[in-house]
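Record minuted for everyone:
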Amino acid sequence: METKHEQIVAFMIREMEGGHIRPGHKLPSVRTVAKMFSCSPNTVVRAYQSLEREDVIYPVPKSGYYLVEGKSIAPVRTESMTLDFASTTPRGDFLPFREMEHCLRKAISLYKEELFGYTDPQGIFSLRNELCKYFHEQQIFSKPDRIAVVTGAQQAFSILTRLSFPGRGQAVLVEQPTYFGFLAAARAAGCPIIGIERDEQGIDLEVLEAHFRSGCIKFFYTIPRFLNPLGTTYTLEQKQRIAELARQYDVYIVEDDYLVDLEDDTKADPLYALDSSNHVIYVKSFSKTILPGLRMGAVILPEPLLDLFLAQKHAADVSSPILSQGALEIYMKSGLYRRHTARIRAHYREKMRYAIEVCADVFGSGIPYTCPSSGVFITLWLPKYVKASAIQERLKQRGILVTNVDLHLLPENQHNDRIRLCIIGVENSQIEGGFTVIAEEIRSMERRMR
């Protein structure tokens, strides 16, 4: 049975093909279509966004949606045709577009003089001051002069992998698996990479100590909370031990806390809060909570590394875009960010809870999977004879996209035996159907390969 979203998309395509909506002409208003299909305006907006992504229609602010001129109407992918468990981009209707649009307009007015020049490479002070208040709420106590605004967390990783750190260590130590974007930055910097295995229980702390003791490590890159791709989190005791080893062996840690806003446990302190020796570099991305296109991130740096980092930052782009900085500052100062993160925290907690319930029903004990408390990632371990690349291709043919975990691993650790499911861009109503197809294909391939 078609969803309302799919019915609206199909109706609009028929109207266009029948010539009832001509190129350059306006589509029915969101409110009109909502009444026509007895649905919420948000459902209509999602349907229109599906058409917009296919370049069939385009929006005009304060006016509505219009049919693109000279555009032939090709079949449009609806939600039932493609389920994207690979994308890490939040759904468009779940991002604060209208609020950020208002903040951007206000930033143009507030910072119009700065648009004619360059701003502080460290970031405008008023934003760093707001970030300082935000971090305090996360048990991260820093000062504005230790915070650097970056053009997305990826810029921070690019700079840090190129930076000369105190000591003789040249290699970066990474969890296996880990975020593939960091691996790309380290490779581009020509930085030697060493892996340490991480599973649902964490890492072997004795192995970590051996790496730290070797003197070869420039820094340890870690995602303690909601690891991409496993979705798992370190215990407090593990984080305390990691911080203690960093102090003992004088090794820096780069803590990627990209999903701190989804944390429900108020006692789940980041590594930075447990560091008494200034060895933790804290990196926060805002791409998963507000518009990714703003390219905003922040880094808290130990004093010995701050000037070196800012010199590299200045060489990279002089300063981060003033409008993005101003919009984020206004968004945070107004309280909108706090309200938005409270909303998405509750949303993803319930979404993950439901996804894990579906996993239990659909995958059972035959297909092991991770069980995060929140976040957006679940990893499946495939049966012995089933290869991740083969199941990925088979699922793609059935309109389901997943990620091979080998993308997150160094070549020597790739076994082609796991897939990652990301629930950030799919609706609850799609999860059970998608997971059922995934289970069917895995079990079918297992039977054929035995």
